[in-house]
Amino acid sequence: MSRAAFATLLLIALVMGANHVAARVAFDHGADVATAVVFRSGLTALVVAALLWPQRRQIRIGARHRWALPAIGALIAVQSLCLYSAVARLPVALALLAFNTHPLSTAMWARLVYGQHAERRLWLAMPVMLAGLALALDVAGAASGLGAAAQWSRIGAGVAFALAASAAFGLALVLTQHEAGTLDGRLRTAATMAQVALLALLGVAWNGGFQLPTAAAGWWGLAALTLLYGSGFTLMFTVLPRLGVVGNSAIMNAEPVFALALA
After folding, report:
1. 20, 120, 135, 204: which is deepest, by most CB within 10 A?
2. What distance lies between CA 26 and its chain's CA centroid?
3. What is the Cα gyration radius of the chain?
4. How many CA atoms lie within 13 A of 126 on its CB side?
5. Any idea what DSSP says for residue 32?
6. Any residues with CB less than 8 A from the CB of 150 and at least 6 apart, and which?
7. pTM assigned to the model
8. Phi, psi angle pair for 184, to nearest 5°
9. What is the number of other CB atoms lying within 10 angstroms of the CB of residue 184?
10. What is the crossing angle of helices 148-179 and 102-114, to 10°?
């Protein structure tokens, strides 16, 4: 990997970490998860589609792309709703630590779906990553003094949402590389974000309508998460498929560190 590629992945981690800090600000001031996902995804889709519009005649979508794009969109919708649900229930850095098991999910899906073997260094890193996650989450409840049962009653739902987001995101990355890697990254972003926004709108309707921020800080958080997520997601879905998602997505594990510092 070149230095520029490595620096770009670190930049993505920084931007995505900042996005989740902004999301927590929005949630703390009245916004709910579905509303945040609709704003973030819908505006990103509109902006990227506007950038693509002058080149629309040059875009070609193959047969594989016609089923892959809806599948990726559905997976990112699940990932978005689950991850923001985790951020709403846990400290941002802890939610992101649990979510950033996605390199393991990516390796698992690549092996199951395409028979692709992960590099030996990733397998060696897996137990270290899981041990670190167990320590950070205090799974035995020793640091908090609550005991395992009470600790899990406090963090269990948030951790479950974060791990579900990890599994969905890992599969989305694998499908992007193998089934939609030849598409323009901006087209993938626009199509995916449009689908996520539509699915999130169903969630908004189910919850009885939009739950908007009740203070200026919440609106700033909502605006910031929209800008940061749209930029980071477009970068990520352009760069990672070219580099290979199995070996290189682990670099974005710096995201919780950035989020902790920013928070």
Report:
1. 20
2. 17
3. 18
4. 15
5. -
6. 141, 144
7. 0.78
8. -55, 130
9. 16
10. 50
Secondary structure letter of residue 146 according to DSSP: S
d(C-alpha 177, C-alpha 240), whole Å: 8
Task: Indicate the residue type of 243.
Answer: L
Residue at token pair 């739950």: 211
DSSP secondary structure code for residue 116 in this structure: P
Beta-carbon contacts of residue 251 (< 8 Å; ≥ 6 apart): 6, 9, 10, 13
Contact 29, 215 (CB under 8 A): yes
Q: Residue 90 carries which DSSP code?
A: S
Q: Looking at residue 183, what is its pLDDT? A: 74
179: which residues sit within 8 A by CB, 6+ positions away? 64, 65, 67, 68, 72
pLDDT tens for 94-132 read 888 899 888 888 888 988 888 887 777 777 777 888 888
Cβ-based neighbours of 93, under 8 Å, separated by 6 or more: 256, 257, 259, 260, 263
